[in-house]
Amino acid sequence: MSQRFQNFREFYPFYLSEHSNRTSRRLHFVGSCGVLALLALAIAQGRPWLLLAALVCGYGFAWVGHFFFEKNRPATFKHPLYSFAGDWVMFKDILTGKIRF
Fold first, then answer.
1. Number of structural domains the chain divides into
2. Cα(42)–Cα(4) distance, rounded to whole angstroms?
3. Would you say residue 78 lies in a domain?
4. Which residue of 7, 20, 41, 54 shows the fewest CB atoms closer than 10 Å?
């Protein structure tokens, strides 16, 4: 049975536990950087197809991290909105040094 969370504050520690492998976190970070770059290009160049490329980039890097390094299923499958938010909070936490890169 899927774990239930009342709010994101309850979910985030679970999210971090699913990202304990350093290589996986690095892949998530690289994927998120790619998403931001592709999003900027899509807007700057007026190429909406780059939004699809951004999705593939973000999820592609993250899922490689989960399947090959964490050896778990991405939380996205059961908690899509919290997981999306978790990706960006973890990205910020890595940038600010709160989480080790």
1. 1
2. 36
3. yes
4. 7
